[in-house]
Structure prediction request, 114 residues.
Amino acid sequence: MKKILLLSLLLLCILPFTPWYIIALAMGFNGWISSSKKEALISGGIITSIAWLLPLIWGYFSGGKLLMERVSTMLGIPHPLLLICISILLISVVGLLSSLSGYLSRKVVNEFSF
Prediction:
């Protein structure tokens, strides 16, 4: 739980100043320090969802509603909240796969270390 909160806060502070794919690097580190595959997958999904959802909701209710409505209309999505849900789903998949990659990378490195 501490790891999830710490990495979520870290990403919340870093994401406004960096590209979105920094999430993949952070989740690779999360997977590297995870003790099991299940922990890596669950924490990766939760951390990325929190770090992406909070600024997205904040932006939506603080003036970004019109922009999200126009983007969802442009993409043919009937409601902007569905656009938010799709965005969360996609970034969660990125977090899950990055965290799993970090976990499996650690296993490979530990297996071949002398």
About this structure: The longest helix spans residues 37-75. The CA atoms of residues 72 and 85 lie 12 Å apart. The chain has four helices and no strands. Helices lie at 2-14, 22-33, 37-75, 80-111.
